[in-house]
């Protein structure tokens, strides 16, 4: 298998494709499926290139003993990265089969792939291969894994993040029924017992002397992302100048199923059953935690019950591996809902300051943007950190002079990856402010945007969604239409929201229209599904979600204090038009649908009421008081 640091001129076909004795075609990828539909998309592509019924294709994802090395599944890049590689490998495998040759060897750069006109599956809507198992309850999620002799674990959590155990009294826990082991070492305190309730009961009576760290200031960075000369002069001498600031709180990934993992560490081997976005990264973390060579650890990704970036952090899996190592038995570790809220990473908060100048013709003459946020992802380096923490901070419009600066600031709250990273925060501010500039310029919001667009694909999605939504019509009393658009990792997306605002200030999302261009589209139904899901989730954090914390301790640790959107909050309709340009390479759709709806909703609220909402979530109190 290909590994990190190993230079290979080309991938070998057997790393990607193999044919079983019964004729089943096995496709191999280091990406993982957690609802995006990539298993189906990859199967469509391979079936077409190999010229076999799709029922004869089996896709193996993320199994570290079988698939080529992969950094992880994030950034809406799976189809863009893996699609071409799988397509070339399948095309070469077809050529080798036709020759009667073994399916092995380097994949030539010039291997001929089938033209799209010959495709039978790709480019057409198709139900998810795993959909039947999911809706009938047959699908195995990570929390469902059961192994012979399996015990259950529970972790003794510290009072605050970063606290270290100096010592513990576990005598009472060891005497309790069913207890197999009490673990104090390798960075945790935990209990292994025959049943989960026994493990939790024993963990509750372990007395730990915690060393609580002093509050650390943390590191700060100021990273220029765009620096044109003359910005300050242009702002100072502007015909019209506008300034605004926008604020977003930290929010939880809030997976419907809290984190879970099963680890089987015995002797010099380990098998980890995990809901992870980084199987090879998890293998490396487990190797460090339990002192095994990576080659002796196998990670078998299972279906997670909600991820959105959460499973880039492999907490439960590493903890389960440590417990299993000490117990000498397979261990199932299930986090509670309270643990998930209190100890899982959050999306960082953001404070976004914008100033812009308008010239005499009503065009943007200068733009200054300061993004204040925390680290998005697992770490930050100024050389590459803007790709995550500064994602979409540079607007997709033609602006002659701009200065965009990313300010990374410390926080006592644990932060990491979240769906779209910083893009949803930045697009909320930028697209809300574009509406404000349009009003200041006495222009219609869509026309104002189009006057600053020179990218035909961005223009196309904006014009398309506006037409589909009936842009310009009066939606009724206390109702408004708002529009927003952007380019996310090469995917073009625009959305129109229709919102109703009650006299109390409560905002209701009534309808949504979306146009998305992800280039060559393998499964239009999958594109629509992902866009709809992104809109629903983003509407939830726009209206309801906010983590409250004090001195690094999360205060709201249940659904009663951290509400999310329910079925009753869903819009009456979401109409998604997948209008991918087939002449362009495929780009991702897992995140783009989530990045525009907050701004579209804020702009719709203004259209309905004349109120600008610059702070999320849009609570009735904020809408009334804005």
Multimerization state: single chain
Share of residues in strands: 15-25%
Number of DSSP E strands: 25
What is the helix tally?
17
Structural class: alpha+beta
Fraction of residues in H or I helices = 25-40%
Q: Which regions are unreliable across 5 or more consecutive residues at pLDDT < 50?
A: none
The global form is globular
Query: Mean pLDDT, rounded to whole units?
Result: 95
Main sheet attributes: strand count, strand direction, barrel closure:
7 strands, mixed
The spatial strand order of the largest sheet comes to 6-7-4-15-12-13-14
> Radius of gyration, Cα only, in angstroms?
26 Å
Distance between the termini: 57 Å
Describe the protein.
The chain has 626 residues and is α+β, with helices and mostly antiparallel strands. The strands form seven sheets. A seven-stranded mixed beta sheet has the order 6-7-4-15-12-13-14, sandwiched between helices. A hairpin with a 5-residue loop joins strand 21 (491-501) and strand 22. Helix 7 (279-290) runs parallel beside helix 8. The radius of gyration is 26 Å and the shape is globular.
